[in-house]
Each structure stands twice: as C-alpha cells, then as structure tokens.
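Board notes, transcribed. Complex of a protein with xanthosine-5'-monophosphate.
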Amino acid sequence: MSLREIGLAELDPAGFIERQVREISAAVGDGMAINALSGGVDSSTVTLLGHRALGDRLLTVFVENGIMREGEPQRVVSLYRELGVPVQVIDAREQFYDALKGITDPEEKREAITQTFYRDVFGQLVRESGATYLLQGTIYTDVEETIAGIKRQHNILAQIGIDTEQVYGYKVVEPLIQLRKPAVRVVAKALGLPQEIYDRPPFPGPALAARVIGEVTPERVQVVRAATAIVEEELAHTAAFQYLAILHEDRVTGMREGKRDFGLQIEVRCWDSEDARTGSPTRLPFDVLSNLADRITNEVPGVVSVTYNIAKKPPSTIEAV
Ligand code: XMP
C-alpha cells in the first residue's frame, strides 16, 4: 500500500497535532463535521483534534449500539463532560440488533455492522445535521490487515475502493491513518487526555460482537459483557496489551447442584503484544486463571466452562470474530 507509516521514533507529537488540526480545518472549510466517540484512544484523539480544528462545528456523538461494555455510554459521556466536550448519545440499539439477526458468518457480521453504522446511523445523522464530513480514527494497522485480506476492519472504506461521498453522502477524514497504536497514545497524551484514556487497552470497533461466536443477540451479548467485566477487573493489574472474553457457540455438558447443566463456554484471551500485529498469550499465574474461572462460572448465568487461549497470533488473531 502507498500509505506511509509515521513510526514512534520519528513522531513529533506537537508538530503532528498542529499539522492535523490545520489539515482538518482546510478539509472541512466552513462546513460541519461529525465524529463518533467510542471512548477508546483512537476516537478520543480524533475528537480532541477535531474540536481544536472546528470547535462547535464538530458534532461528537456516542452511538449506543447495544454491543458496548458495561456502563460504557455513561462513563464516556461523563468523562467528556469533565473535559468540556459535549457528546450526544444516539440510541441505535434496535438498528444494530435487527441488522445482526440470524447472521453467524464473521465477515457478514462485520459487514452488517459497517452498513448499519455508516449507511443507516451516520447517513441519517448527516442528513439531519447538515454535516458533510465524518472524522474517524482509522489507524495504520486497520488498513494493513484489511488490505492483506486478514479481516475486514469495520472502519475501512476508501482504502478498499468505497467512495463514501457517493455511497453514504459524506466524505471521511482520517487524521491518524499513518500511526500505529503506540504512536496514537503519545499524541493522545500530548493533547492532554487523561491516562485512563491514553493507556486504555485497545477495543475493537465491532465491540462485543467481535467476541460472540455465532448469532449476536442481546442475551448472548449480555453473557459476554458480564464475563468481560470480570476479565477486565481481574487483569487490569497486568501489563498485558489486551485481555478479553469470548462466548463460544457450542454448549458443553456441565453440572450444577448435582444436575446436568448443558451450558455455555467462555474463552479468556490475554495478549502480550507491541502493536497487535503479532501476539503471544501472557503467562498468567495459575491462581489468577483459576480465580477467573471461579468468578465467571459463579457470576455469569449459564456458563459451565472457562478456557484460556494458549495460541499465538499468527495463526490466531487477537479477537475471535
Ligand atoms: P485482530 O483480531 O485483527 O485485532 O488480531 C487486531 C487489533 O485491532 C483491534 N480492532 C479490531 N479488530 N475488528 C477486529 O477484529 C475491528 O474492527 C477492530 N477494531 C480494532 C483488536 O481489538 C486488536 O487490538
């Protein structure tokens, strides 16, 4: 691909911020732009760059898609209120679950999320707000993996030949496209974002849908959401790159209160990685794993089995879908 990476060694955060603010201003001109904030480091960085460039001509929304982590919408809105950035919450839960109904194929799932996000939710927002630009936090790794044919990352559009203006009615500006995650963290810090954001482990765009194997229903997302909360709480003290819970499609026989319980299986993954290109499972102490299994089987209804992934990326990927 012709895109050039700006590596950590050559990154001058202040100069980068100045240049991106200038470029966003030049691209959007006197118009309005819109951006979706998820609370992760990439979208947070874009939100601050966009506000510096456009002020109140940038409408920042949090799309409540129903597949986010526990308490996420409230957390994000209140954190940004403290930072002085107004965030509008858009309730799109029904649209996402309708689009995901009956789909089990991973690429079809990604496609359903992409279309719901860009065509339905943003298409409507753009028509209502008069915005002509969408600012988004696509990073170098997203482009690389999509172009290499590994996975269709949900936010890749122009790079695979989609003319967003023609298809969705708005242009897309991507200020972070030359950076990998470690460089984005440096820029986020330089913009004055708090450590809980610039140090936050990565989280995928398709959210918990990337961690549900098989059909994504509100009930199945609730299972993985509860398991995720436990994994994040128990592994926050580690220096791991990312940790997550996955809900499997198959059920297995287990026992509860002396009776057979044909129950759910959760897989825990915890990764050591530099930038998500490759990864190895963290060598967690067995007591930590055992405690995770106890908490997940006791606290998440229906789960009878907890496994820990020991395969590297590649051939695994970090997420399961
Ligand atoms: P994978 O699973 O491709 O993930 O090894 C690489 C990194 O990207 C994050 N991430 C995504 N992963 N689809 C994904 O599968 C997405 O749309 C996406 N967005 C971000 C993932 O969490 C990991 O850090």
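The longest strand covers residues 242-256. The mean pLDDT is 94.
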